[in-house]
């Protein structure tokens, strides 16, 4: 008796489930790309986060370099210094160089002061201070407490 080959009733192509899985993967990849792109229009919140990262870098530099490091924020921007030979010397190279505030951003300080000083010692402890960045009616406060914790609060 001759045997015939089994017939396949399944047509070539993708199932609905396979197509949905591919769409989910493409969507996740697209979201990842969008989240990692630098934001050009992030405004004052982005600038405050950048300042907070620079303060964290200054704290880490104090601990890793076993030296005092301070960041001074004034109307012009942020400058970093370290104590050498009993005197404060500017840090001019690398990530801790002087950085101006973005155009249109102004800094507000506590109790009518003209600047804020964030000092970090070799143990990572800090001089508590705060500064508020303001642009287009949006405010973002950057605070550092005595333990060296840095907080950004945008409103």
Estimated share of beta-strand residues: 25-35%
**What string gives the helices and strands in order?**
HHEEEEEEEEE
Summed up, the helix count is 2
- State the secondary-structure class: alpha+beta
Oligomer: single chain
Mean pLDDT score: 83
What does this structure look like?
Strands 1, 2, 3, 4 and 6 form a five-stranded antiparallel β-sheet that branches. Strands 5-7-8-9 form a four-stranded antiparallel β-sheet, covered by helices on one side. The protein has two helices and nine strands, in the order H-H-E-E-E-E-E-E-E-E-E. The longest helix is centred in the middle third of the chain and has 22 residues. A hairpin with a 5-residue loop joins strand 8 and strand 9. The protein has 155 residues and is α+β, with helices and mostly antiparallel strands. The N and C termini lie far apart (84 Å). The mean pLDDT is 83.
What's the short story on this structure?
It is a single-pass membrane protein. The protein has 155 residues and is of the alpha+beta class.
What are its keywords?
9 strands; single chain; 155 residues
Topology:
Blueprint: H1 16-36, H2 43-64, E1 69-74, E2 77-84, E3 87-90, E4 99-100, E5 106-109, E6 115-120, E7 129-135, E8 138-144, E9 150-154
Antiparallel strand pairs: 1-2, 1-6, 2-3, 2-4, 5-7, 7-8, 8-9
